[in-house]
Amino acid sequence: MTMFLSLSNTQKARPRRFGYRISVVGAVSFLIIAAWTLVAIFAPYIAPHPVGDIVDFDFFGPVSAQFPLGTDYLGRDMLSRILLGARYTVGISLAAVCVACFCGVTLGMTAAVIGGWFDRGLSRMLDALTSIPSKILALVIVAAVGTSIPILIVTLAIIYTPGCYRFARALAVNINTMDYVTVARARGEGIGYLIRSEILPGIIGPVLADFGLRFVFIVLLLSSMSFLGLGVQPPFADWGALVKENIGGLSFAAPAVIFPSIAIATLTISVNLLIDNLPQKIRDRSEQ
């Protein structure tokens, strides 16, 4: 009896360890993403010079104390242009991925719940849209209606909505066969309730991971469009446009090309690493 009480007191004294294990890589990635987000928000207040001002008569100026990242092909400060370019790269990509994921996930869950002709017709239509290469579709849309920030957001959202739809539909179809969904349908719950309260909670984790990956894809596609001259128009520029407009000086003024490329790489790689190192809840493995 004494031994039993001693073991019980020992177990009660041992603290339970519930929580999330956050890896160093995930934490560093999150800090980099947070830093670029803050830069995008406060860029006009922290940029040393206005985005279009020529501040150096020596084009492709070297890195110096006055210009920490050098100057571009017109003598504009690269640090200011990279900081202000973060507003367009991060802002446009985030807006586009939010629209794409909202539309794709909503349509995917709706198709899974309704099924029948609605599911088949919507799936075939979005499959046809998926069959068009993303860059070609973006070039066609932008060439047809012109270039502006709202058009870029809508174009990128249209391109990535089918992928979000197929991913969400595949998850929702599996959840839709669960017993608790069948019970909810049997007691007369509507489509909106099934989607909001039964399907969405079961797929939210994978959808958030897919959200991060789509964000990376959109950043790279936006940079590609800007490199082709169909992105943000001068004097404003996102990071892809900064690489494109300074590519002619790569052989003798590499900083003007390398630093925007590093900005793109740090953002996209950090998002990928954060997704790969999402914190996982660890169960208490102490003796009971």
From TrEMBL:
PROSITE patterns hit by this protein: ABC_TM1
Transmembrane segments: 20-47, 59-76, 88-116, 136-160, 211-232, 252-275
Pfam families in the cross-refs: BPD_transp_1
Gene Ontology biological process terms from the UniProt entry: transmembrane transport
Chief localisation class: membrane
CDD domains: TM_PBP2
Gene3D superfamilies (UniProt xref): MetI-like
Residues of the ABC transmembrane type-1 domain: 86-275
Keyword set, alphabetical order: Cell membrane, Membrane, Transmembrane, Transmembrane helix, Transport
Cellular location(s): Cell membrane
GO cellular component, one term: plasma membrane
Record's bilayer topology term: Multi-pass membrane protein
Keyword NADP appears in the UniProt entry: no
Similarity field: Belongs to the binding-protein-dependent transport system permease family.
The name this protein goes by in its record: ABC transporter permease subunit
Organism annotation: Microvirga makkahensis
Classification lineage: Bacteria, Pseudomonadati, Pseudomonadota, Alphaproteobacteria, Hyphomicrobiales
